[in-house]
Amino acid sequence: xxxxxxxxxxxxxxxxxxxxxxxxxxxxxxxxxxxxxxxxxxxxxxxxxxxxxxxxxxxxxxxxxxxxxxxxxxxxxxxxxxxxxxxxxxxxxxxxxxxxxxxxxxxxxxxxxxxxxxxxxxxxxxxxxxxxxxxxxxxxxxxxxxxxxxxxxxxxxxxxxxxxxxxxxxxxxxxxxxxxxxxxxxxxxxxxxxxxxxxxxxxxxxxxxxxxxxxxxxxxxxxxxxxxxxxxxxxxxxxxxxxxxxxxxxxxxxxxxxxxxxxxxxxxxxxxxxxxxxxxxxxxxxxxxxxxxxxxxxxxxxxxxxxxxxxxxxxxxxxxxxxxxxxxxxxxxxxxxxxxxx
Amino acid sequence: xxxxxxxxxxxxxxxxxxxxxxxxxxxxxxxxxxxxxxxxxxxxxxxxxxxxxxxxxxxxxxxxxxxxxxxxxxxxxxxxxxxxxxxxxxxxxxxxxxxxxxxxxxxxxxxxxxxxxxxxxxxxxxxxxxxxxxxxxxxxxxxxxxxxxxxxxxxxxxxxxxxxxxxxxxxxxxxxxxxxxxxxxxxxxxxxxxxxxxxxxxxxxxxxxxxxxxxxxxxxxxxxxxxxxxxxxxxxxxxxxxxxxxxxxxxxxxxxxxxxxxxxxxxxxxxxxxxxxxxxxxxxxxxxxxxxxxxxxxxxxxxxxxxxxxxxxxxxxxxxxxxxxxxxxxxxxxxxxxxxxx
Lengths: 342, 342
Prior knowledge:
Helix content of chain A: 25-40%
CATH class of the largest domain in chain A: Alpha Beta
Domain PurM-like N-terminal (chains A, B): 33-145
Pathway (chains A, B): Cofactor biosynthesis; thiamine diphosphate biosynthesis; thiamine diphosphate from thiamine phosphate: step 1/1
Largest sheet of chain A: 7 strands, mixed
Family (chains A, B): Belongs to the thiamine-monophosphate kinase family.
Oligomer: homodimer
Function (chains A, B): Catalyzes the ATP-dependent phosphorylation of thiamine-monophosphate (TMP) to form thiamine-pyrophosphate (TPP), the active form of vitamin B1.
Structural class of chain A: alpha+beta
Binding site for Mg(2+) 3 (chains A, B): 35, 81, 230
């Protein structure tokens, strides 16, 4: 079934998408339906704002990403930025631009994914904008959150421990897998690709989660990171952000970088260097943070967190120590759509 | 001169665009450069959030809109939404998606316009996102503001007076003029169009302002509107929003709708119905609001504000009273890019 968006019009579509929305956060005073959303934050909290603009063909490929997953992920990547500030996401606004190619059912599915993410993370949809585009789909999400104590990228100090949540490189491997199947199956519409044994990689690429649990665990353990960032462009790139803004160097140990078994198998299959994938593969949405060395015991006991190295004085630069003890300068080869244009 | 964006890369471009940014608002704690901006609002204020996604070919046409004007307008339309809530804009985030067609110089000019608007209205750029697009330019701006008393669309009451700032229809006429010149001059590159005597129309289309002054005047006169909205889709459409959400009707008098002389001349030249242009031409960014009848004297003395009618009981519907006393039902024929797709 295909319903044309034009048959509803802009206001009809907005009504359809937003009619079932309920506000659950105390700070959400008024949501969709006026010139602006109205929020009420207490003075003890700092308000966090982050935004992302996702363009079809650059940030997502609808030939293998279902609309519902796309919506879910578009919301999650913004939540992740709020958690990376040691905050809690509370509200989002959602703007969509849609070409004639898309039906009301497509937008419903996209919005279902956004709503699901909002339910899982207790975030309210408070506004947005829906209009047309000449070609393709554009999604712009802004997320507002709060925190009692913002953690920035710039607070890392010499001797601080570098920690990372979860494991790295799997989302990138999931992308490689999907791209391969796309080109293999291009001319054979009826073949169903066999992804068995690779489910984790696909899930990491198609349905990532934001690390709410890590922020809660850190708070429960009374640990305030000295710096924090989420890993969207790859570990190397994010570590360099922290070191540059903290005016510091770092040493990261290859053997401590957390990598899932499926990621390793897939890298082998693709004949790719596993460490390179873990350092530079994007979209992990794990948290990278530093803690004072005094927190060593507490943090090393926390499930799902791995110590991968330590912060140094700036003069020592940023380096990876390989398994055989060699030092290599860390470089940002992260995912960068503007550079890829070359 | 043309510098390729790829030669700077994403982070290089962001650095270039944001290096000169200074934060001037007390509530702007931390701006560009981390996972999220950090804002500090006092509990007495409500926080307002509005967002707009502008797509090339739908919301703007670069064949006659200079980049600097585009940037200025993209910011202004968001400020206007904050004023329409009886608020003050404080911060914006700016996301851009750019195809290879655009140079660093183009983006500089676009950002110059955004920065100029921010300076004029004392708003801080606190974040954003820059990436590539397959075709065209997409601009997403989110504006955050504050208010001590939010004014919604839904507060209009029977017998309230309907007021509008400035004059209507000029921006629409400016657009018609630019579209005409575009088609006339399509094949004659060297001809310069003659816009003398029509400067006001072009200014209203290319460099609109948000009505900060009206919000300040109302506050100074101790008038709190019962409802308010900014006119972006045309007077009819906005009046219907107010009446629908306020569960009310209205009577608007054709003879009281404020129209500039140039708008009238241009409508004559294009053989268009002037009232239709004023009712349905979009992008005026004037404020439409209602006040209790007790404020009649105060509001009628305010410069730049015109009383155009009054709110009625819902049963009476929404109608325009023409100069010869006839009643016509108001209809929203406003600018609607989703409907235009048909």
